[in-house]
Amino acid sequence: MYDPAYGATDADLITFMGEEVREESAALGRRWFLVAELAGRRFPEMVGRQMYCADSISSVAAEISPVLNISHSRAVWQVETAITLRDRHPQVFKRLCRGLIDYRMVSMIVARTDNVADDVMVELDEAMAGRVEKWMKLSKNKLRDRIDLFIAEFDPAAVRVPPDADKHRYIDIDPGDTAGTAFVSGRLHAEDGAALDQRLDALADTVCSNDPRTKSQRRADACGPLARGEATLACQCGLDDCPARANRAAANAAVIHVLAEQGTIAGTSDKPGYLPGFGVLPAQSVRNLLPAAQTKPVTVPTADTAAQTGYRPNATLTEFLRWRDLTCRWPGCDKPVQRCDIDHTVPWPYGPTHPSNTKHYCRIHHITKTFNTGAGGFTDEQLPDGTIVLTAPTGHTYRSQAHGASMFPALRQPTGTVETTPLPPESPDRIAMMPRRRQTREQDRRERIATERRKRTEIITEQQRQHQAWLAATYEPPPF
Predict the structure, then answer these.
(1) Residue ranges under compositional bias (Basic and acidic residues) (predicted)?
(2) CA–CA separation, 333 vs 87, rounded Å?
(3) Of 117, 285, 345, 408, which has the fewest CB atoms closer than 10 Å, so is most exposed?
(4) What pLDDT is recorded for position 252?
(5) Are residues 279 and 400 in the same domain?
(6) Helix%, strand%, coil% for the chain, nearest 5
(7) Is 457 left (phi over 0), alpha (psi -120 to 50) or beta?
(8) Which tops the pLDDT comparison, 64 or 168?
(9) Of the residues 121, 145, 162, which one is the last residue of a structural domain?
(10) Whether residues 75 and 178 fall in one domain
């Protein structure tokens, strides 16, 4: 760390900043080089697996996500980007590894040149590599325009076509930047957006004039009643004779689940609760939910009560596993348990259906562990407190504590050891039983590129037609 007390001038500080920025970029380049090298070594071993759900890209992503501590989807993107830089942008890649350009530049180039034909990329890569250092100070939009200008010169049909906004409708509700809040974003049909806007206004106006909240705050609070199917927003005036109270009615209510300790509910503790998908919920926010809530204790199995027969966990064990794990247990993965499978660490019936032998894996990690196991694959071990020890094909090990158990100690008490029987030898045809894709990743990519290139060609043809029409309309023959 640079400290002015050791003689660094203001100019030195600026110089040091620039050096650190270049070192960060170079480190990113070196990391992507390592990812591409690992993929290059793994892919020959996985020939013929491109139609499987856990294809070569997914398998490498599952291997790097624990060490990078990132989700599976981000790991897939890292693998695909590293391979693209190595194979299609070697000259640009060299400049990243030297720290001459940064992540922003590289990600923009990779995205904008995705449609460029392979036989054009060598020349385009050389041409852009000679300019990228000069583009570093350009804004995002100006950088996009410069890259597109080069693409139009080398392969006009490859210029990216703006997406059809109507096809990209969505609503995202994510954790907010402060505890107990959520962030909403989305794109709707205009008529649906107008209806939602009016409905929030209508709900916000069902309180009396003494409510202390602003209109914006009431609109935000109205999302709760709207989601629960309620006809009015609860007034916060605090008056016993509030004129809005008589109008309050409720329809079918939506249900949310919150995990909290008994002391938080009783008011003897201010330890926060947990709202799945949104993180910690302040203790007072938990208590604010109590008037309309039903409380239910989570039954924590003990060594004497945990064992059960059969493959599928019963309702009590399923509920305990859901709250203990909260997310996929693969290191770096945070998919919620609602989108996960319950996996037997030691496969059933060689290992029992027991809290010390079951946990949640999302579908892709469940498939990866199930079909890419044994020698040269992944193995996992589960401890009585739910901790998972995952061993990668390289021999690296990663410990993963259950997310719920890490926040609520009662959920990580040991549930006893399990008795297992030796597994039979692995079938050499085991991989053939893996679920398959409809198309390979490369087929999906080629199909998308062909569609977008066709749209760009149609745009170019129409522009040329309009230009010719304009020339015909403005042309005046010379006088004789």
Answers:
(1) 440-459
(2) 28
(3) 117
(4) 42
(5) no
(6) 50, 10, 40
(7) alpha
(8) 64
(9) 162
(10) no
Residue 267, pLDDT > 50, answer yes
pLDDT at 6: 66
Q: What is the per-residue pLDDT across 412-453, written as a single tens digit (0 to 9) for each?
A: 889 888 888 888 887 777 777 788 888 888 889 999 999 999
Mean pLDDT of the chain: 86
d(CA 260, CA 283): 8
* 412 located within any domain: yes
For 412, the token pair is: 């990580």
Structure tokens at 187: 């794109």
Query: d(Cα 78, Cα 84) in Å, to the nearest integer?
Result: 10
- Enter the tokens of residue 204: 């916000």
- Please tell me whether residues 54 and 148 are part of one structural domain: yes
Please give the C-alpha separations between residue 421 and each of 51, 351, 391, 403, 464, in angstroms, as whole numbers: 33, 7, 21, 29, 73
Whether 440 maps to a domain, the answer reads no
Place of tokens 């158990």: 405
Fill in the DSSP letter of residue 339.
G
Contact between 30 and 82 (Cβ < 8 Å): no
Q: How far apart are CA 431 and CA 157, in angstroms?
A: 40
The maximal CA–CA distance of the chain, rounded, in angstroms, is 109
Residue 30 corresponds to which tokens in the numbers above? Answer: 């070196």
Residue 352's domain comprises: 315-426
Q: What's the N-to-C CA distance of the chain in angstroms? A: 82
Whether residues 422 and 355 fall in one domain: yes
Q: Are residues 321 and 292 in the same domain?
A: no
Which helix (H) or strand (E) segment is 171 a member of? strand 170-175
Please tell me the pTM assigned to this model.
Answer: 0.73
pLDDT tens, 367-389? 998 888 767 788 999 999 999 99
Closest CA to 51 of 344, 437, 351, 434: 437
380 close to 391: Cβ distance less than 8 angstroms: yes
Residues 225 and 128 placed together within one structural domain of the fold: no
Quick one: 220 and 327 in the same domain?
Answer: no
Which stretches within 185-329 are classed as H helix?
190-204, 215-228, 262-266, 283-289, 315-325
Residues constituting the chain: 480
Reported as a pLDDT band with limits 50, 70 and 90, residue 279 is confident
Q: Please, are residues 204 and 306 in contact by the beta-carbon 8 Å criterion? A: no
Copy the structure tokens of residue 70: 């990132």
- Coil, strand, or helix at residue 362? strand
Q: 168 pLDDT exceeds 80?
A: no
* Distance between CA atoms of residues 209 and 78, nearest Å: 54
Domain tally for the chain? 4
415 and 323, same domain (yes or no) = yes
Mean pLDDT highest for which of 18-32, 40-54, 231-245, 258-272?
18-32
The listed range with the strongest mean pLDDT (78-82, 137-141, 185-189) is 78-82
Q: What is the pLDDT of residue 246?
A: 56
